[in-house]
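User: I'm writing a short report section on ligand binding and want a predicted complex to refer to. Could you take this sequence and 2-acetamido-2-deoxy-beta-D-glucopyranose and write out the structure as tokens? A short remark afterwards would be nice.
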Amino acid sequence: MLIFSVVTSVCGVEKKFWSIFHPGAYEWMGMGIERFCYPPKPPIFSWLVAAILMMFVSFVSACDISHCTALFSSAKDAEKTELFMKLAEKQAEIPHCISLRTYIDCLAKERLRTLCFSDITYNGLLSGLKQKQRKRKCSADPQAAIYDEDIMPPIGPLPPRSDRMCSFSGHQKYKLCGLFGDPHLRTFNEEFQTCKVEGAWALVDNKHLTVQVTNDPVSSTGAATATSKLTVIIKKNEDCAADQFIMYTAQTDNLPGSFSLGQTHYGPEKSVEIIEKVPGKSVEIYLRYIDTTIKVQQIGRYFTFAIKMPEEVLNSSRIKDNLELCVQGCPNNERIDYNKYFSEVRRTNHNTKMSLSKATEICRGASLVDFYFDFCVFDLLTTGDENFTAAAYQAWQDLIELDPELRKTQVNRTELPPDTSGGESLMQTKHMYSSRILLLSVLLCLFLSIPS
Ligand SMILES: *[C@@H]1O[C@H](CO)[C@@H](O)[C@H](O)[C@H]1NC(C)=O
Ligand SMILES: *[C@@H]1O[C@H](CO)[C@@H](O)[C@H](O)[C@H]1NC(C)=O
Ligand SMILES: *[C@@H]1O[C@H](CO)[C@@H](O)[C@H](O)[C@H]1NC(C)=O
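Assistant: Sure. The structure tokens for the complex follow:
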């Protein structure tokens, strides 16, 4: 400011001098310090003229800040990365603060300060940035993080801009969750559960997205439930998704190939996209900015669901106390101990919609192993609907498509787990509750087995 007022006062004298020779003609003189001279006009106008002049002048002056501007632009592109978010979190500020600080740090370098000391654009920019910094409550710590081209890759050899926009660049370590059948759940923590969860439940509910399923009874008699409705809500993200939430809803026999408003993609370079794999049967939703894939399929009358998310996105986006089946698993009172159910069936062979031997045979024939074999047998016993075999098979295919490494974690087991229940009565499953006949037959067995 001081420099500027000195300059203007010099100009004032000079103007008087020039106006003697060119009355009325206050022309900009072009070089050196004279470039700040302009006719005495209202201050706002003067500033405007000065700013416009400076834009021209900056081409000829040695005060070249273009590399700082480019650096700032790259930093802005990197704001969505986990690295930025983590660094910002450390200072309790928003990621944009790192970009601002990077810009300021670059501009304030000794060499530029010397070259630009009289440049209004430069000085205005710097004070504007500092003001913004205060307004955004950015950390004032001079040691706080800045964007460093050498350490933070995106800028490095400058890949095409489109590659960098709304792309996830965190750790490629993923977690998978799936839900299918009666319903059976594979949690992010690799637990396998069979649940009742009738009604609406959230599978995922974090800062980025919510996935909710509605499970209905499979038939009016049995207590088996399956997923008949699925809703995905992608939370507002002005830069990479939409300035409103984006919704996708599928219901039995209505699996659309687009989001609720009919669009198939959002954000720059389709950073949110839905792809119809098989019309009416199978879709995939991909969120590039968090490298998250969601697969939804209808098999028979019900849905299978699978999701793959980076672990660090998962960790950083949790909302405290939210119940997410994919994270916590089903609540204890909603779980069905299917091993107990198998023991019970082995013992009594009653009240199943299909015989144990036939169910086992069908599931083996479908190349199902390990947990998926168990789930297939369970669903056939409880519903008799062979479509659930395809659901179990597809659920597994979806997961290994999302992460081929999972194949290695599966055991080649095509027998039900050994009976470990020791003969205690098994009244815990919903299927038992659902059948008075079975209860009676068990009581009858017990009665008959009492030594007289
Ligand atoms: C299995 O699914 C087909 C349609 O995909 C359906 O027509 C059939 O009724 C289903 N089976 C049962 C037992 O519900
Ligand atoms: C995510 O959180 C879990 C448990 O809190 C932790 O073990 C894991 O290392 C975290 N992963 C990442 C990538 O932050
Ligand atoms: C799994 O076991 C069955 C027989 O128990 C065998 O036929 C099959 O080849 C095995 N599969 C693999 C991948 O090892």
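A remark for your report: Residues 2-21 form the longest helix (20 residues). The longest strand covers residues 225-234.
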